[in-house]
Design a protein that fits this description.
Order of helices and strands: HHHHEEEEHEH
Radius of gyration: 18 Å
Strand order of the largest sheet: 4-3-5
Number of strands: 5
Number of helices: 6
Helix content: 40-55%
Distance between the termini: 45 Å
Number of domains: 2
CATH class of the largest domain: Mainly Alpha
CATH architecture of the largest domain: Orthogonal Bundle
Strand content: 5-15%
Structural class: alpha+beta
Largest sheet: 3 strands, mixed
Length: 146
């Protein structure tokens, strides 16, 4: 369900042009299968749309959206964070070490094993994050051709 201005208001966020545009960017790109964006990606997309917003403003809005529970921040590498819309459905990530491509996946067997392992150690899982790092098919093909 798309997030709109009334959702921002209910979260205590003022409805501004930059906030609405950044939210629109995430929703549009998620619908196209590109769910993970950096602050720099968002900044570039805003500039390409002719919207004059500073990079500091982009970082501030992303941080506000994260605190409000609209976005989730990931640190797949040490260089920069990627953001995605927060969703109720859990998923894990495959991350390419060469090009940075992120692929989402869900595997019930992995989820079941994690719950078993936690229970064996006396834990009840509330949340977890699993990121697997390797080379995507495109990068494997490029590196093979060298």
């Amino acid at each position: 369900m798309p997030i709109d201005s009334s959702d921002l208001k209910s979260l205590g966020l003022k409805v501004t042009g930059p906030r609405m545009k950044i939210l629109d960017i995430f929703q549009k790109h998620a619908s196209q299968g590109q769910r993970h964006l950096s602050a720099e990606d968002v900044f570039t997309l805003l500039k390409n749309d002719g919207i004059d917003v500073g990079l500091a403003t982009v970082y501030r809005v992303l941080s506000q959206f994260e605190v409000a529970g609209l976005l989730r921040r990931h640190h797949f590498d040490a260089d920069h964070a990627l953001y995605e819309l927060e969703e109720a459905e859990h998923h894990d990530h495959l991350v390419c070490l060469h090009c940075g491509h992120v692929e989402e996946f869900v595997d019930e067997e992995i989820e079941r094993r994690q719950r078993e392992i936690a229970a064996r150690h006396g834990f009840v899982l509330r949340e977890h994050a699993l990121s697997l790092y390797g080379l995507c098919a495109a990068c494997q093909a490029k590196l093979k051709d060298r």
